[in-house]
Amino acid sequence: MSRLPRALSGAQPTADSYHLGNYIGAFMNWVALQDDFEAFYFIPDMHAITVDYDPAQLAERTYVAAAQMIAAGVDPERSALFVQSHVPEHAQLAWILNGVTGFGEASRMTQFKDKSSKAGTEFASVGLFTYPILMAADILVYQADKVPVGEDQRQHVELTRNLAQRFNHRFGETFTVPEAYIVKETAKIYDLQEPTNKMSGSNPVHTGVVDLTDTPKQAAKKIKSAVTDSETEIRYDVKAKPGVSNLLTIYSVLTGRTIDDLVKAYEGKQYGHLKVDLAEIVGELVGTFGARTRELLDDRGELDRILAAGAARAREVAAPTLDLVYERSGFAKPLGGRP
Ligand code: ATP
Ligand code: MG
């Protein structure tokens, strides 16, 4: 049976809004892949509960996440857009994959080390520890071929490949072994105030993070206040000039102009010129983006319908995969088939 190759990705609803790093590093790629892939994009609400969170906010954040993904260009007519907890096969497969994951290999995941070091491993949840296994299930349950992610997720996709190969080897050919799809240039957008750190939604300070719900004025201010360096020359050099290089990257992806072209255009000009122009571009982006998001959020009924249709499409693929996995695993089949 020939089918289009499949792409799968998600972005956690752990903040009140996604940020410019998510937009550039994730959503722009998701949108581009829709043409040539059968795409599955989802809101990982079950991942979001692995860290401290407020249940009173989660549903609202899930709606905002869906609206922002659509505003970014995810087309629910072409791609399945859904909420993770609406498709129970993710959690069911994750449990099975727990059984083929080594404690040692799970312990080597650097994201857990990073995220748990903040509060100390004593207080980190076991859910945060097994998060990469749920992520492997998210990917494998759709037999995904490509997983568009930022650099921070490379190790988790590598674990997913190992688990798929191990399962196939032990229990017979079952899973497609997926590949990470990381666009080198935009894999990491940096914090505007600390340009050697990744722009991150979970950073408690948002002066260096452009939220997609920022007003054009707020966004412009953040760009104009971006930390640069004590030189004056505008050139791309991530090591020596991380701040300026980050601004050039953002400018380049948002306009489609190459970095070389930008460096030539700004020859002899000052950092201020670059910032003012980029502030306008980013301001315009969040302006249109915000208006579209609010429009979508005003019609919850329509969002509910989109997410229900997305979950139904997702289950058409996820349920048969899980069935095969249960069979391969040796589970006895209940009378009348599996629920
Ligand atoms: P956290 O910092 O809490 O992990 P996050 O901002 O990284 O949150 P995620 O839900 O982990 O958000 O990531 C969603 C997607 O966005 C992933 O594909 C991730 O690789 C990508 N992404 C996140 N931050 C950036 C960034 N600064 N630059 C490029 N891509 C990013
Ligand atoms: Mg992350």
From TrEMBL:
Record: residues binding L-tryptophan: 138
The protein's role, per its UniProt record: Catalyzes the attachment of tryptophan to tRNA(Trp).
Residues that, per the record, bind ATP: 12-14, 21-22, 150-152, 189
NCBIfam families assigned: trpS
Keyword Cell inner membrane: no
Catalytic activity: tRNA(Trp) + L-tryptophan + ATP = L-tryptophyl-tRNA(Trp) + AMP + diphosphate + H(+)
Main location group: cytoplasm
Alphabetical keyword list: Aminoacyl-tRNA synthetase, ATP-binding, Cytoplasm, Ligase, Nucleotide-binding, Protein biosynthesis
Entry-linked Gene3D superfamilies: HUPs (3.40.50.620), Tyrosyl-Transfer RNA Synthetase (1.10.240.10)
Subunit description: Homodimer.
Protein's recorded name: Tryptophan--tRNA ligase
Entry's localization field: Cytoplasm
Family of this protein: Belongs to the class-I aminoacyl-tRNA synthetase family.
GO terms for biological process, alphabetical: tryptophanyl-tRNA aminoacylation
GO terms of molecular function: ATP binding; tryptophan-tRNA ligase activity
Classification lineage: Bacteria, Bacillati, Actinomycetota, Actinomycetes, Propionibacteriales
Domain of life the protein comes from: Bacteria
Cellular compartments per GO CC: cytosol
Annotated EC: 6.1.1.2
Pfam families xrefs: tRNA-synt_1b
Keyword ATP-binding in record: yes
